[in-house]
Amino acid sequence: MGSSTGNMLVDNSETLSQIFKNSPILIATHCEDEATIRANTAKYTSKYGNDIPFELHPIIRSEEACYLSSSKAVELAKKHQTRLHILHISTAKELALFKSNLPLKEKNITAECCIHHMWFNNTHYAKKGSFIKWNPAVKNESDRVAIIDALKNNTIDVIATDHAPHTLAEKQQNYAQAPSGGPLVQHALLALMELVSRNEISIEKIVEKTSHAVADCFNLENRGFLREGYFADLVLIDPNKKQKIIREGLNYKCGWSPFEGDQFSSEVKSTFINGNLVYDNKQFIGNTMGMSLTFAR
After folding, report:
1. What are the catalytic residues?
2. In CATH, what number is assigned to the domain containing residue 182?
3. What is the residue range of 89's domain?
4. What is the CB neighbour count within 10 angstroms for residue 50?
5. Rounded to the nearest 10 degrees, how much is the dihedral formed by the CA atoms of 91, 246, 273, 283?
6. Nearest-CA neighbor of 184 among 266, 276, 274, 257?
C-alpha cells in the first residue's frame, strides 16, 4: 500500500476493497499513502533537485502518509473481518489503531515494528545519510520511544528485521537514486540486547516478541519455543563482549551495515538451525541449510 523498491504498489481503493473482502488468508501490508508521498517528493525536488537532504526523508514519507494508509487498512479489515497484519510501524500516531487488551491469538488485527525504528531516530540522518534511508522512514525520538513502549504493553505484537542488501555503490548515490532498505540480520539481536542493557526493554520481552509471538501470530508449526519436539533454532550470546561494528567484520555480501561505528556490549557466540551448530566463535560450520516453514491451519 506504499511504493518502495520494485513495482509492488497496490493502492487503488476498489482493488484493495476486493482483496480485503475476498482474501482467505492473512493480509500483511506496508502502509504509506502514495499520494501524500508523491506530493511531498515533488515539493522538495523542485527545491533541491535529486540532491534532497536525507534529513527530509521522514518529512517526505511522513507521519501523515503512514497514518492515512494504516487507518485505511484497519478500516477495511474491520469492515470485512479480514485477518490483517500491518508491517513496520514507524509512528506513535499509528499505535492508536491497535489493541493491547486482547491475547495475541484472539487478535484479528496485529502490528509489527522493525529493529531500525527501535534504534535510530531523525538525528542520525546527518551522519548516516542513505544508510538509514528506509521505507517507512526512521522518524523522531518520540516515535522510537513510543514504539518500544507499545511493545512492552502488547500494542505491537512482533519485532521484525529488514532484508534489503543493496550494494554500497547503490546506497552511496544521491537521495533520489539511493534505494531504501538495508541489511540487518547480523546485528539485529545485538541491537536488541543493547536496548536491554540500557533498560529500555526486558530480555523476556525481546524473547517473546522475536520468537514466541512470531510463532503465535503466523501459526508456525513447532518453532518459536524451547519445547520438546520443536526445532532447536537457538542463538547463544556472550553478554559481556564489547565490540565496535566495523566494515571488516561484516558477513553481509553487500559489504556495509547501518550499524557501522556503533558500539555493542554483546556478541553472538553460537547459532543452531534445526538443532545443528552452524556458527561458532566467528566461524561458519559446514553447509547446513534451513528448511521451509510450515503453518498450522
Report:
1. 162
2. 3.20.20.140
3. 13-225
4. 11
5. 180
6. 257
